[in-house]
Design a protein that fits this description.
Blueprint: E1 3-10, E2 13-20, E3 23-26, E4 29-46, E5 49-52, E6 55-58, E7 62-67, E8 71-73, E9 75-78, E10 81-84, E11 88-89, E12 92-93, E13 97-99, E14 104-105, E15 108-111, E16 115-116, E17 119-120, E18 124-126, E19 129-130, E20 133-136, E21 141-142, E22 145-146, E23 150-152, E24 155-158, E25 161-164, E26 168-169, E27 172-173, E28 177-178, E29 181-184
Parallel strand pairs: 1-4, 2-4, 3-5, 4-6, 4-7, 4-8, 5-9, 6-10, 7-11, 7-12, 8-13, 9-14, 10-15, 11-16, 12-17, 13-18, 14-19, 15-20, 16-21, 17-22, 18-23, 19-24, 20-25, 21-26, 22-27, 23-28, 24-29
């Protein structure tokens, strides 16, 4: 789907995708404004910004999702969701995520919603980068983890969250972390 506006997407899976686009690019949905549950995408996704292995930009609560492919974009890029503006629950991503610029996460690149009981296992490379979330703004991360290696080309590099502005509870990261400034095994800043 390029855009989903209203309604529900559930029990939908797409396999072996090979998607190339510009903005709002996802393995399942480019720009989402609907409840998405129990759905997945496998395969690789490439774009410039708002790019995710499953959803490019998200505005509604989602749960029980996964993406397994590699994701490559310029900014606002995540293994599951590029930019998230709602709650994410019981979801995961396993692919590697790579970006040339900012807001890069193994699960979510730029996050404005609560993330609960979710994880990412892929390696992540970029700027303002985290194994789970690149920038976590004003919403909580709970009972979540990241296990991939994180390489930051600049500032704000964290094994779990690159730059954090909210509560992080009952969560952990296990991957190697490398960067130049504001670097942490769990949180960069």
């Amino acid at each position: 789907f390029g855009i989903v506006s209203g309604g529900t997407v559930e029990n939908v899976g797409v396999e072996n995708v090979d998607i190339n686009g510009s903005e709002y690019v996802g393995g399942l949905v480019g720009r989402n404004n609907a409840d998405v549950t129990n759905s997945y995408a496998t395969g690789n996704v490439n774009g410039t910004k708002y790019v995710g292995g499953l959803i490019g930009e998200n505005f509604e609560d989602v749960s029980e999702l996964y993406a397994t492919g590699n994701v490559n974009a310029t900014r606002n890029v995540g293994g599951l969701i590029g930019e998230n503006n709602a709650n994410v629950t019981e979801s995961y991503a396993t692919g590697d995520v790579e970006s040339d610029e900012d807001w890069v996460g193994g699960l979510v690149g730029l996050n404005y919603g609560n993330i609960t009981k979710s994880y990412a296992t892929g390696d992540v490379d970029g700027d303002f980068v985290g194994g789970l979330v690149g920038l976590n703004s004003d919403n909580d991360v709970a009972s979540s983890y990241a296990t991939g290696d994180v390489d930051g080309s600049g500032d704000y590099v964290g094994g779990l969250v690159g730059r954090n502005n909210a509560d992080v509870t009952n969560s952990y990261a296990t991957g190697d972390v490398n960067g130049t400034k504001y670097v942490g095994g769990l949180i960069g800043e």
